[in-house]
């Protein structure tokens, strides 16, 4: 069973449907015991960094997330769920994130001919050792919706990257922690393969 953390963020139902489509039980919950009873845990999200941290704090979910990480359960952050794993974001400079991984969340720089937010498909350069991308080759396309991006501090954490006005660290992996800036649940067969790889960890 996969626990999907509910903190009123967008795209939670689409993540649940994708997991269920793959034949895995998914539970959307903010109950500590139900989250910790999951074999794996997903933190989805669409929205504002500061608002999201306030919701996590309001629902008492911050320590639950730390407990999931400490228990070495496979954990997947999606979109805003990736950004929240870091300590700071230019979107909400006065708000402290979870600080689980090292890096910074920056605004996509303005560039001629490119719209911000990035909405649409972009191709990935994959780290061949990355577990989330097992069985995928070439430069697969995935679906993004974001105005801020990750610049990871440790290159060895980067599972996949892309380019959109800047080099974007689009996916990271460290021990039991996995995260994607893009939306695997909206990325067709490639995204389903990524989610299947997570389920099979």
Please give the number of β-strands: 12
Question: SSE string, helix = H, strand = E?
Answer: EHEHEHHEHEEEEEEEEH
- CATH class assignment: Alpha Beta
What is the CATH architecture term? 3-Layer(aba) Sandwich
- Cα shape: globular
Explain what you see.
The chain has 201 residues and is an alpha/beta fold. The protein has one domain: Rossmann fold (3-Layer(aba) Sandwich), CATH 3.40.50. 25% of the residues lie in helices and 29% in strands. The chain contains six helices and twelve strands. It has helices at residues 12-21, 32-37, 49-58, 62-70, 80-83, 188-199; strands at residues 2-5, 26-29, 40-43, 75-78, 103-107, 118-123, 125-126, 141-146, 148-152, 158-163, 167-174, 177-180. Strands 2-1-3-4-12-11-10-7 form an eight-stranded mixed sheet. The model has no long low-confidence stretch (mean pLDDT 97).
Concise account of the structure shown:
25% of the residues lie in helices and 29% in strands.
Write the layout of secondary structure elements.
Layout: E1 2-5, H1 12-21, E2 26-29, H2 32-37, E3 40-43, H3 49-58, H4 62-70, E4 75-78, H5 80-83, E5 103-107, E6 118-123, E7 125-126, E8 141-146, E9 148-152, E10 158-163, E11 167-174, E12 177-180, H6 188-199
Parallel strand pairs: 1-2, 1-3, 3-4, 4-12
Antiparallel strand pairs: 5-9, 6-8, 7-10, 10-11, 11-12
